[in-house]
Amino acid sequence: MTLNPTLSRPTFDPSYGITGDPEGADWPATEAKLAAARNYWVATTRRDGAPHAKPVWGIWQDGALWFGTATDSVTGRNLARDPRIAVHLESGDDTVILEGRVEVMAVTPALTATYNRKYAQPEDQSPDGATWYRFSPAVALTWLEHDFVNTAARWTFE
What pTM did the predictor assign? Predict the structure, then answer.
């Protein structure tokens, strides 16, 4: 599934100098970065409102991030209570931040095979013991740090 988000500019104080359309904004190129990423930083919220972040391995496929975590982990408990998360790729220089919700999904053999190939796991390794989630973005923010004023972009999904 190819996503077709609406492109706009993030809302910042005018002192940032961000005007006009973002330069070089390209959602297919952003999806290529998401697919190529090794680690995805997932931010959830604890019961008391405190933030929790950790890197996870995952697969960007069909317009969504698929990842697993133990049900009884901090992340698993947080997601059971509140499915809203933020996901950030590793780079702060070539920034991709996603916000949205997860849903619990059954992992398919095809997804398992793709995951195992990506992370050089044994082909027959099973994701037993993890709950698998499909994260669909509602909003994405992207920019290049060296040209933030011209490249800062906001993508919204329906």
Answer: 0.92
